[in-house]
Amino acid sequence: MTARLFRPGVLLATFALVATACGGSNAPPSPSGAASSPSAVAREASVGPATVPPGGPVEIRWYCCLGGGEAPEQKAVEDKVVADFNAAHPNIHLTFEVVTYDQANGQLATELQSGNPPDIVGPVGIGGANAFHGKWLDLAPLIQKTNYDLSGFPSNVVDIYKLDEGQVGIPFAIYPSALFYRKGLFEEANLDEPPHKYGDKYTLDGQPLDWNYDTIRQVAKRLTVDKNNKDATQGGFDPKNIRQWGLELQRDDLRGLGAYFGSGSLVAADGKTAQIPNDWAAGWKFYYQSIWTDHISLTGPQFESKDINPEDYPFFAGNVAMSENFLWSTYGVGKLDDWDLAAVPSFNGRVTAAFNADTFRILKTTKHPDEAFEVLQYLLGDAAPDLLKAYGGFPARTAEQAAGIEALQSQFKNQVDWQVAVDGIQYADNPNFEAPMPAYNESLGLVGSGGKYLTEFGNKPGLDMDTEINKLRSDLQAIFDKAS
Amino acid sequence: MAAIGVQPLEALDRRAGGRRFFRRPSLGRSALARHEAKWGLIFLAPWIFGFFAFTLIPIIASLIFSLTNLSLEQTQPLRFVGLDNFVRMLGDHTTWDSLAVTFRFAAFNLPIAIVVPFVVALVLNSRYLRGTGLFRTLFFLPYVIPFVSGVLAWQGMLNLETGWVNEFLRMIGVQNPPNWLQDTTLIYPSLAFIGLWGIGAGVIVNLAGLKGIPTELYDAARIDGAGWWASLRNVTLPMMSPVIFYSLILGIVDVLQYFLVPLVLYNGTGEPGGSTLFFNLLLYKQAFNFQNYAYGATLAWLLFAITLAITLIVFRTSRRWVYYAGER
Q1: Is the pTM for the entire model greater than 0.90?
Q2: pLDDT for A280-314, tens place per residue?
Q3: Chain A nearest C-alpha distance from B29 (Å)
Q4: Does B223 touch chain A (CB under 8 A)?
Q5: Do A455 and B269 count as a contact with CB atoms less than 8 A apart?
Q6: Cα A247 to the chain's mean position, in Å?
Q7: First to last CA, chain A
Q8: Which fold has domain A30-175+357-406?
Q9: ipTM for the complex shown
């Protein structure tokens, strides 16, 4: 080979190497192992229509994954859903864009700001969507225009998506709350199991009691056991050496924790004043007392310990008797063979079961709302069974819930009373605890997962909770003020 | 014989049989020179492209961002806001709080980060130590493990309830061992302790410096009656001063950009009690979590200015305490 030929070859190779080295983004590779560019993935996934109408099909972009959906096995289903849609709808060309969860929020924000937004986004939870409050299309006119039937969904769940922006979503996958508990630990402690029916009493020491947070506290104390097998009601109980805890509240998010005590929002009706709902304040105080006074819940260091809590939710490890959580948390209970679901306790005579839900939404910026709504109907309709199965979602559509229960039960050996979860839907919190807030991402830094105050409550005994709650309100107000 | 340095270039050329030893850059002078220059630029092009695309243009862009209201959450249109972000930054107590946190930690950690690798290198360089190769490997080994993994492992080891450190303290009779990672009085020692996990590179640099000190200097010192301490003070430290200076500069830059450990341990919340809200963490949160790119860029420029100022001051003082053997 002559030098004349060799040098350009070396040059090309050098360029190729440098381009490879410099071309990677911070985004992790797409789960499929294909090119990380979402559009590349999308184009690969889509299949051309059988017949192309004059002027060509309308391009609709489906953006995933603000709330999961990027796992390889999920993507395979999503690709098939897209291909099936394109095959049956020559007027629309649907493309699928995968951006992994950790990058999805930032990338969608960037696409919106740069004037290149997708049309449909999902699956996305209420909180994930509310980070983009004001950007969603009001579906009400399209629902009316197409006579889309909403009667198949629980009306209170449809209402959760009614915001100041309009009807921004139609229910798809829902995750009502329930009280997860271990039957074996109740039996061991000679206690009745918690009620499965909302409104039923709990019998403790022969006394029928309302199933509320006072009762659950008493029961949880009996189920909290130290290394000497003394429970938290007995003299000589050693709170420094607990081996089993009675109750674990939902501690992913202060708002969610509060929502089990009542619906509310951190923003007043004017949209700019920070407020702490009284029920939430009571819930946070209950939580704090559970950790530091009653010792029925794990402290922060215990929660952080991989020896005590190896799977991030202590109930999964088997050393917690009762745990309030969403239905999606069934993913982690498979190792236990004696768990079941019970009713969430009431507070001040009223039951509120914090609610999570995922759906698909259309962005206000779409140039083709009718076609986007056609795709949305498909995702919520024909494609829903496959997608729900792939996402592990419980169907929002009442008629499909029996099949959803069957699918859930097939994952476990022990018989679970799934009706409890279905009954919990009617107690869903509205306004949802993940309702919009000014400067959503920054506000979430105070109250969300791993947020400042949750960390503090779990780690610092002796706090004056009223002072802390006031501080939180002030901190939130400062963020709201900056945003306005 | 005339010194080579004062001979004309032509004389040197003649000695080399007409082949030139020294040639001034002659870009564009001849066809060959132009050809070589062209290929030189072509081979440099990837780097130049990378420098422009990933360094220079982002730097300029961040300066422009800092003068706008750019935010991914913004509801208002993008516009030029002059120095508003800088005014806001200077009036924001979080800026000063996070700077105070950074400087407090720097004052505690910097001496440790410089002294400990130096002392370890001294020990590894000792002729009395057996199995030096093994020890060198052991000290360097943690450096090759991803630091995030190391931080997570330390998080487990320093856990109040089940950490090995507290298990050990309980074993020797300490009834209430400390909450290392949640106690504001212990947090900086704990972070410095975690930082020691990655001193392998510093040890190697110091060891290389120590190996480079001519043994004649120690022999001469010994003949003059110097003991270990006098040799360290009068030979080792002056000869190592360029390495110490290098470590100091890198240490300053590192500590002003301290970020990873508090992000992993506390999710960037600044807990306990705001003691880990380091300036670089505040910058990261503003820019990437809260998507306030303009304000994040403004904070970045303040960090740059502070780092530059401190580095220049340290460079200025180096004339007084850094000894370069090759200098006249």
Answers
A1: no
A2: 999 999 999 999 999 999 999 999 898 999 988 99
A3: 22
A4: no
A5: yes
A6: 21
A7: 68
A8: D-Maltodextrin-Binding Protein; domain 2 (3.40.190)
A9: 0.73
